[in-house]
Structure formats: C-alpha cells, structure tokens
Design goal:
By secondary structure, the protein is of the alpha/beta class. The protein folds into 2 domains: 5-122, Rossmann fold (3-Layer(aba) Sandwich), CATH 3.40.50.720; 136-221, Regulator of K+ conductance, C-terminal domain (Alpha-Beta Plaits). It has helices at 13-24, 36-42, 58-63, 79-91, 123-135, 213-221; strands at residues 5-9, 28-33, 49-52, 71-74, 97-102, 119-122, 141-146, 151-157, 178-185, 188-190, 203-209. The chain has a 6-stranded parallel sheet, with helices on both faces. A 5-stranded antiparallel sheet has the order 7-8-11-9-10. The radius of gyration is 21 Å and the shape is elongated. The chain starts with a strand and ends in a 16-residue tail after the last helix.
C-alpha cells in the first residue's frame, strides 16, 4: 500500500485512534488539536506531527501544510466544525479525499459534496446497518455509502424462496450500475464467477448506484417498493 500524507482534525478518542491506526500502517500523519494540554499529554504516546490550533481557521490548516495532504479527516466532536473543516480542506486546499465524522445522525444530510465531504461516517447509522446485517435474512441492507451517497455497498442473505436461489451468477440479470463483489458461504469469501451457484443462506455483497437499489432488491428478494429505498424509507409490498 502506498503511504499517504493524511491530516486529522481533533485529537479526541476518535481522532487519536484513527491517527494511531493509520500511522501503524505506515502513513504520514498530522494531527490538529487546539487543546495544548491534550497535545502535551498525547505527544509522547503518539510520535507524529502535531499542529496546535483551531482547524476551522485557514492559518492553522496552512500550518499543517494541508495542500500536500491526500486525505483530510474531520473527526472533531462538533458537526458544525467538521463541516467547516471539510469545506476549507476541499475548496481552499484542494484535498483529493475528505472524510468527515457525523456526530448527530440528524445532521448526516448536510455532509455531502456541497460541503466538500467525500465520505461521511455516522456511527449510529453504521451500528444500525451492522445490526440489520446480523439479524436480517432476505432484506437488502445498506452497509456503507460511497461517492457522497451516490453508490452504496449493499448486503443480503438469501432467504429460502429467493428468485435467485439455485441460479448461477452467470444467470443473474443484474441491473445496470450494480456489481456483485462477493459471495460469503460458510465463513468463506467466494469470488462471484459465472459458474458460482447461489443458495439460500448465502450472503451477497454488491456495489450499487443509488437509483438502482430497488432493481437489485427486486432481483435478489422478489420484493417491490413504492419508491426509492433511501434509509428505510421504502414501503415493502
């Protein structure tokens, strides 16, 4: 993996551990924090480039040489700050990839391309998806949003009676903008080759454009929806 230069705003629990993990993977990390006492407390534990200051201020981001970073992570505990940081990183410093933490789920709709956010991470929504993935059979579950919500990683565990139970991958009439990326069976990850058979109990992972989710749901589960699936907004028939 190519080492990247990554800036992280916020040295709280989230920012600190993200910085630690990324450093352990060999990346060049700069951590921005305005609490001087916290920096002094953590500096020896995490020997990276520390920048003291408010990440919502241009001069602080300039001190972090943000223009040379390939990724910016806005990980503070304040959604308003994370939006401002994301916007500055994208518009003023042209950071290629901006990842922002969403603290309050009601604010997730703001974390989009207009605010410079490439990927928004909402812990409550992520936990909900993981719970649904663990207990749902026959339902299409969104695990992760990509490209400002335009693409999603979806999961479904095939129920008995699924329209694709007994078919091979080659026989699937996959909708446009949908790609099957893995079949998980008996704790093994199988590449979805043309002759791979599908059976009830298989867990399928697919990358799907937002406007194709209903078509994929119809193909794999036989369910119909009255309108786009959104986040639980669809009405099943």
């Amino acid at each position: 993996m190519k080492a990247m230069r990554i800036a992280i705003a916020g040295a709280g629990n989230v920012g600190f551990y993200v910085a630690s993990d990324l450093r352990a993977k060999g990346h060049d990390i700069t951590l921005i924090e305005q609490n001087k006492q916290l920096i002094e407390q953590l500096r020896e534990e995490l020997p990276i480039n520390w920048v003291e200051g408010d990440a919502c201020e241009l001069y602080t981001l300039d001190s972090a040489v943000l223009s040379s970073c390939e990724v910016m992570v806005a990980a503070t505990g304040d959604d308003e700050d994370n939006l401002v940081i994301a916007l500055l990183a994208k518009q003023e410093f042209a950071v290629p990839r901006v990842v922002a933490r969403v603290n309050h789920p009601d604010n997730e709709w703001l974390f989009n391309e207009s605010w410079g956010v490439d990927v928004a991470v909402s812990t409550p929504h992520l936990l909900t998806s993981l719970v649904e993935e663990a207990v749902s059979i026959g339902d299409l579950v969104r695990l992760l949003k990509l490209e400002q919500g335009k693409v999603a990683l979806m999961e479904v565990t095939l129920a008995p009676g699924s329209p694709v139970d007994g078919k091979t991958v080659r026989e699937l009439d996959m909708p446009p903008d949908c790609t099957l990326v893995a079949v998980i069976r008996d704790r093994h990850v199988l590449p979805p080759r043309g002759d791979t058979p599908l059976h009830a109990g298989d867990e399928l992972l697919a990358l799907v454009a937002a406007d194709a989710e209903d078509d994929l749901r119809r193909l794999l589960t036989g369910e119909e929806t009255e309108h786009g699936s959104g986040d639980g907004a669809a009405t099943r028939k």
